[in-house]
Amino acid sequence: MVEDKDILIRQAKDDDAAALSELVKGVQDKVFRLSIRMLADPEAAQDATQEILIRVITKLSTFKGDSRFETWVHKVAVNYLLTARKVIARDPGLSFETFGQDLIDGLVDENLASPEDHVMLNDLRLRCTMAMLMCLDRKHRATYVLGEVLEMEHTEAALILGIEPAAFRKQLSRARASVQEFTAAHCGLASPTAPCSCPRRLPAALNCGRLGAAPYAAFGEAPSYAAAKVMAGAVNSGLAAVKLQRATGPLRAPEDFAAKVLSLVDPPN
To answer: Which of 100, 170, 225, 267 has the most Cβ atoms closer than 10 angstroms to its Cβ?
Structure first.
């Protein structure tokens, strides 16, 4: 498989359009998943995915094979997500304090709560789970997403971030502690004593336009709300935080972004 990938990369570098298409299509889901976990906004993640894939195509000649191709792609992606002006301008600048207050505002009484089979309940769970990470600064957010959500080896994640493995582990420990503490204190899926629950939060989220008119397509393969509730309830609150962060499904790209960007970079005759 490694040899086949090496051949594909050489062919793509030699302007083989079919090889380039296969190479880019092979990483678009990974790029989208990283983007949506870093940005928590489907529209922004879709834009970022296309921008990153363009950079993968235009910078392909600089890939020397010193790492796995997917590692290099993640490095290109993380660099964009951490430094692009467009991304920085759209960052909401959340803090755990303000996000926690936002979750409490608008909670309805248990008697008015949405049923657990509401079509939008799992969409809310997933969006809230992702938005929580926006309370981390971008450096710690990237560290947490790579190490805890995507479960990358620390040496590979450190290489992607351009830091030493020891520094990566310290950043991951700080980010993990912050996410665990917030989740245990606020999320009803992780702790039965927490003030917020998705059924009580959903009416306000729908009223203020936090959700779309229908569940987001990329969330379609995620565990259901009921399954996530069982999963989180089976472990302590510390482990529940990471269980919920990982319970998103594969987050495949909702459309063929590779085809879009390839038509822009190399328009058809």
So the answer is: 225
Neighbours of 119 (CB within 10 A): 9
Contact 165, 158 (CB under 8 A): yes
Q: What is the spatial distance between Cα 180 and Cα 244, in angstroms, rounded to a whole number?
A: 11
pLDDT band, very low/low/confident/very high, at 262 (cuts 50, 70, 90):
very high
Tell the residue number behind the tokens 């992607």, with chain if given. 160
Amino acid identity, position 257? F
Among 254, 230, 245, 228, which residue's Cα sits nearest to residue 178?
Answer: 245
Q: What is the pLDDT of residues 63-102, one digit of tens each?
A: 999 999 999 999 999 999 999 999 999 999 999 999 999 9
C-alpha distance from residue 73 to each of 69, 167, 239 (Å): 6, 22, 30
pTM for the whole thing?
0.95
Q: Which amino acid is at 217?
A: A
Model confidence pLDDT, tens digit, residues 182-223? 999 999 999 989 999 999 999 999 998 889 889 999 999 999
Q: Are 35 and 81 in contact (CB under 8 A)?
A: yes
